[in-house]
Structures are given as C-alpha cells and as structure tokens.
Design goal:
about 725 residues, alpha+beta, 5-stranded mixed sheet, two-stranded antiparallel ribbon
C-alpha cells in the first residue's frame, strides 16, 4: 500500500545509502510541553491514516537527512546513534533479528534486537537498553537521530545558579571531570538548602534535584567555556637557564666538534685536543635503545569494521547490504587483563661504508629479556647474595643430596675435579661450604668457567661473558618466578659482542663507540665500572668528556636525558618497527593458529618472536642510514635553541609524514599468495558481472531500437494506407 504524502518516510527510505531522503515529522504548534504519552507522535496514532493531508491542528516539518555522513551534533552520543541505525539496518536481513516486520514488543529480551546491538557495541542492556530501544523507536518514526531534541527536554541546565557554575568550573579546571563536578555541585546545594529548608525537608515536602553531568556540561557551555582534548608535549624545559638546557647545550657543542674532528676538520681536531675530547665519526657509532611491546589478546587494531558476509559461507564477503544472504559477522572483542606481560628487546643499528663508498645500514641481533626487570649491577649483586643465603636451609628437591652449609669444602665430592689452578685449590682448603662465594650453589654446581649455552642458559647466552657454572644457575633462578630480573651487564656483554663482530673488518675495530640513552641502570657507578673493565672507558661511549658539564652533578660524565631527537631509534625507527609488526600480524591473520609462519601476539614469547622476525626486514637499511644521518642536524637545532626544547619537536610521535608499505618477511609468502588468489578471484567475478551487465544493457538497447524501428515501420505503413 502506498504511503500518504505526509506520512513519515520511516525505515523504507531512511537507509538508502548516499541518498538524502525527505521524511515528515509532525509536531505541535504550541510551546508548552506535551504530556509524556503524546511526545512521540507517529502516523499510526493520529487517527488520520489513509488521508492525503496532515491534520489541521498540526504543522508539517520536512527534514532532509544526509545519510551516513558526519553527524550534525558532534559528540560520542550522536556517533553511537548513527552506529545503532547502521546496525538496525544491517540486522534487517531475512533470518536475522530486528527486521522491520518485527513488533517493538520483541525488541527486548536476551535474543532481541536491542540486546544484540548492546552486545556488539559493548553497552549494558540493564542500564542502556532503554536508550537503544528509544533510538530504534525514533528511527521507525522517521526522526533525525543525529540532532538534539529541539525542545531541549526538561532543561535542567537552566536551574544551575552562577555559584553552582563557579563550583563546577573550579572542579573542571582542576581535572576532576564532569561526574565529580556534578557530585560537588549537588553536595554543596544540598548542604546549603538543608539550612534554609530543614523543616520542609524533614517533612518530605521538598526534594532537592540532583545535578547531572550533562546539566553541568550545558551550564558551563552557556557560561562561555570551551572543552577540547588536552594536548601533550615533550618532556624537558623551555627555560634556557635551567640546568637541563645548559647541560644539553654544552653536550651538543661537544658532540658537534667531535663529529667535525672525526671528518678531518683541523680546527675541530685542535679543539678536541685542548678540551680532552675524542674525535668520532657517524660510521663509528653503534646505536642501542630498549623497546617494550605488550601482549595483545585479540585483534591488534583499536577499531572494528563490520562488513556483510554470506550466512552460509562466512568466509565470503557481500558488499551489497540488500542481498538476502547478507548477515553481520560475530563481534570480535579484545580481551583485557589487569596486568599484561611484555616482550622486551634492546635494538641496535649502525652503518658503514661499502666497497663503492656508499653508506649501508645494519641492524644488530636484538637482546631479549621478556617479562624481566632490568636492574643495575649493585641491585643484582644484592639479589644474588640473598638467593645464595636463601638456600642454606633448604632440604627438598635438588638440595636434598646437596652439601650442607657447615660441611667442609674438602669433603665436597668433585669440587676440585678438573682444577689445574693450584691457587684455586689452596684458596678454598679449610673453608666451610657457607663461606664460599656461591655457598651451596657453588658446592652443588662446582663446574669451571664456561661460555653460555643457548639451550641451557637461554637465547643469546653465547654472547655473554663466560662465568662459573654456579653463576649461570643463580642467574637462571633470578630470571624466572614472580619477580624476574636481569642485570644490565648482560645487555652490555651482548652489545659488545655484536659490535666487535660488526666492526672487526673496519678501521674502527678497536675504537668503535656505543651510543645509548640515559638509562639509569646503565649509568650507575658499578655498571660503568664493569663496562670499563671490558675495555670501554669514557672514550668508547657517547658521554660528556673533559670539562663538559663538570660542574653539574647530574650530567657530569653522563648524558642528558629526554632527548629523543638524538637517538635514531627514538626518532623514527621504533615507529617503523611497530608499523611492521602490525603489518605482519594483519597479513598472516588468515593462517591457522598452529602455523609456525603466523605472526602472533598472545604471549610474551609470541610477541618476542614477532618482533625479532619483523626486525629482520623492517625498518630497511636505507631507513637506518637516513635516520643516523639526522644526528648532526639535531645537534644544530639544539644549539640554535640554546639547549631548550625545540618547538617543532614538542609533540614528537616518531611516525613519519609519509607511510610506505613495509616489506614482508618470507614467512608471509603463503599468506600473501592466499590473499592475492582470493582478490584475483573476486576481481574476475566482478569483471564477469560487469561484462554480463554490459551485455544485458546492449541487448536491451538493441530490443529498444528494434521496437522503435518496428513502431516506425508501422507508422509509415499506416501513413501509406491513408
């Protein structure tokens, strides 16, 4: 049956995507608010259904609604209503819940349309189901759900006084939020009114209206306030006289002269000799920085896109929402946990000159310490001693047959076996087990000094400094459990081993330099002493040398922190690595979970494996060289702004201006081929469909031309007969 001209367009034309439909809203000409039961007026309640004209006591307002565009009312509420409308349309397909032939009484319930929409949007059916049902009712009545009610509801905002707005303003400017501000205004209003209306309140004759967060927001808006997302800025100081800025300026000047001296500048070489600085070159530095990545339980993207799929074949996507087979796929929420584990890596890059004279980038093997807390050497030695003392009284497990704490060392079986060092034997003769440096650990594991074994001591252990067997065992115990830790000296050993292997064929084999940021564990006194024992004094790592920052107790002999522009990994390479991780995870999402080629993020081990494999291909060597060469320009900027924060870097995110498609790991070849085959098949089907449509259009045009020619011939024959 055809709808009358004044009837609301309702749901029939409301969801014609890309078309601005016109539908009629019948409203009252009176200013007073209508009773609640008559506020929502549809054509079925006017008593004039079937007539071609609207009632005489009502006026008609035609609203043009541009569909699926930016809402007129900017805000989360309007966007949610638009999403509800889209879901209502998507769930309208035959066989799905919520088609428009459904009565409103069955919108509720555990299997109703409102419950399904609440489940997909993460809303609570108990508290927010009524709002969803009301929005569905407005959709069926043809209302524009993206704009506010013109009557403004009960207009609670006008009931707030200037004093109430002042209280709310103080709370909001103090970052307390709308809910807290509403509670403060209500509490103060209650205390003030209780003194004036104590008797009436006790008698129950007067009730104090509560102030809602929306009331506070509207009142503050009318008072001329503005709300926007709070901006962030880079840590540091804009005060050029601050100690941090002065130390940054002195450090930048020193490193600038060091680079000029490394390039052969005579004046810079003379200045380095005068000040006690060491000339360096960019190809001489190995840059290292730490990066952590949390476990992701579910999809890695923050947004979920819904496309219609075939109800019989969920793997097939249907781009026509009017197709009878189209249904929505099930929601894929992300699981949240209170404490998520992390995969932790120390990443390193460098560059060197090839045979043709061009610079080529290089990525070092990452150092892994998943779910472990890195601590300085002083704290690690304290924990090591506490672990040695802990096992003195243990009698279970492996300690059941172990030597006791009061046993003589000479009676420990196998303790002196294989020892050729006479001093080693004489040092421990006559001692008790508890007096050994390793206590019962050293008596139970009396093995000699050995190199690390990846199978026994973890991946990358072969790069660490050799140590006695009991030290390896204590390290393994401290590295697991509820509070696992790892010493920063292990990372130093890894960096030194990787750097020696990379620079051994260059002129910097004995003089290459470590570039690391201001990590407190790295720059502790004991950790630096260990680094010096390994042959890396202050000339072998980037730091303040000579008289630079000598009067500053925070930065003397160290580096200035909060300077990401001086670290190539912080500038862009870490962001490139993150883009590569997301690219590989999404690319292999069509593989089975037990496929070893799939990039996964469910556990720290899986995240670490994803990080390591991505690091092999992205960022590329060209990107590494590009970001290392930015180091001199960053020094010039710091000198230009006299050590203060650089204005254009106050919101440094690490992301590049232009996003390039990263290369994929060879493990992704099967997933890429699978996707390409699917896309090729869809393209062939689409081309075939277009070809059939063209043929149908040609046949229709031919039939029309034939019919026209026949009609023309008939007309000519009639004319000839006349």
């Amino acid at each position: 049956m055809e709808q009358p001209a004044w009837h609301p367009a309702g749901v029939t034309g409301l969801f014609d995507a890309g078309v601005a439909t016109e539908h009629t809203v019948v409203s009252s000409p009176h200013k007073r608010r209508m009773p609640r039961r008559r506020r929502t007026l549809s054509a079925g309640k006017t008593g004039t259904q079937g007539s071609d004209k609207p009632p005489a006591d009502r006026r008609v307002r035609v609203v043009k609604v541009p569909l699926l565009e930016v809402p007129k009312y900017p805000g989360e509420l309007a966007d949610r209503r638009t999403t509800i409308r889209w879901l209502f349309r998507a769930l309208k397909t035959p066989g799905a819940k919520g088609f428009f032939g459904e009565e409103q009484e069955v919108w509720g319930g555990k299997s109703g349309t409102a419950a399904d929409i609440c489940n997909r949007l993460g809303l609570k059916m108990d508290s927010q189901g009524k709002s969803v049902k009301r929005t569905l009712k407005h959709i069926c009545d043809g209302r524009d759900i993206r704009v506010r009610n013109e009557r403004g509801g009960r207009k609670r905002a006008r009931k707030m006084t200037q004093c109430d707005i002042g209280v709310a303003a103080d709370c909001l400017t103090a970052s307390m939020g709308l809910r807290y501000a509403a509670a403060m205004v209500t509490g103060r209003r209650t205390r003030r009114m209780k003194r004036k209306l104590a008797r009436a309140l006790n008698a129950g004759e007067v009730k104090i209206a509560k102030v809602t967060p929306e009331c506070v927001r509207q009142s503050c808006k009318r008072a001329g306030s503005d709300v926007h997302r709070r901006q962030s800025k880079k840590s540091g100081s804009s005060d050029k006289t601050a100690k941090w800025a002065l130390a940054s300026l002195a450090q930048a000047k020193q490193q600038k002269i060091q680079l000029l001296a490394g390039s052969g500048d005579r004046n810079a070489i003379r200045d380095c000799r005068t000040e006690g600085w060491t000339p360096i070159a960019l190809a001489q530095i190995a840059w290292w920085d730490e990066r952590h990545r949390k476990v992701c339980l579910g999809c890695s993207s923050k947004y979920e896109w819904w496309f219609m799929v075939d109800k019989d074949h969920p793997e097939c996507r249907i781009l026509d929402p009017t197709d009878s087979r189209a249904v929505l796929p099930p929601p894929m929420p992300r699981t949240t946990a209170k404490y998520l584990s992390e995969a932790r890596r120390s990443l390193g890059v460098a560059m060197k000159e090839d045979a043709t004279g061009n610079m080529t980038g290089h990525k070092f093997r990452p150092y892994s310490y998943d779910s472990q807390l890195m601590i300085g050497l002083e704290k690690f030695l304290k924990k090591q001693l506490a672990e040695i003392r802990r096992v003195d009284t243990l009698v279970g497990g492996e300690w059941r047959k172990a030597p006791k704490a009061n046993d003589d060392v000479v009676k420990v079986p196998g303790f002196f076996d294989g020892r050729r060092d006479r001093y080693y034997a004489l040092r421990y003769i006559g001692m008790k087990v508890k007096d050994l440096p390793g206590g019962r650990y050293q008596a139970l594991y009396p093995g000699p000094v050995r190199a690390g074994d990846p199978e026994k001591d973890g991946p990358g252990a072969e790069l660490l400094k050799p140590r006695e067997e009991w030290l390896w065992q204590v390290r393994a115990v401290l590295g697991r459990g509820n509070s696992p830790v790892v010493c920063v000296t292990d990372m130093m050993d890894h960096i030194i081993a990787e750097g020696d292997a990379f620079f051994k064929d260059t002129i910097y084999a004995k003089t290459w330099v470590i570039g690391h940021d201001h990590l407190s564990q790295w720059w502790s006194v004991a950790s630096l002493a260990y680094l010096h024992d390994r042959g890396f004094d202050n000339t072998r790592y980037l730091c303040a040398q000579g008289k630079t920052n000598a009067g500053n107790r925070y930065y003397a002999g160290s580096l200035v922190g909060c300077r990401p522009e001086l670290m190539p990994l912080d500038s862009h390479l870490n962001a490139d690595h993150e883009i590569g991780i997301l690219h590989h995870v999404g690319l292999t999402s069509n593989l089975d979970n037990d496929d070893p080629c799939k990039f996964k993020m469910g556990t720290p081990t899986e995240v670490g494996d994803t990080m390591d494999r991505t690091w092999q291909v992205f960022p590329t060597d060209e990107r590494v060289v590009q970001d290392i060469l930015k180091f001199p320009r960053a020094l010039d900027k710091i000198i230009e702004f006299e050590g203060g924060v650089i204005p254009e870097l106050t919101r440094l995110s690490g992301r590049r201006k232009e996003l390039r498609l990263p290369p994929h790991h060879p493990d992704c070849n099967a997933a890429v081929q699978k996707r390409e085959a699917k896309w090729d098949m869809e393209e062939e089907e689409w081309d075939q469909k277009l070809l059939e449509e063209e043929k149908e259009a040609e046949s229709e045009s031919e039939s029309e031309s034939e019919s026209e020619s026949e009609s023309e011939s008939e007309r000519l024959s009639e004319d000839s007969d006349e």
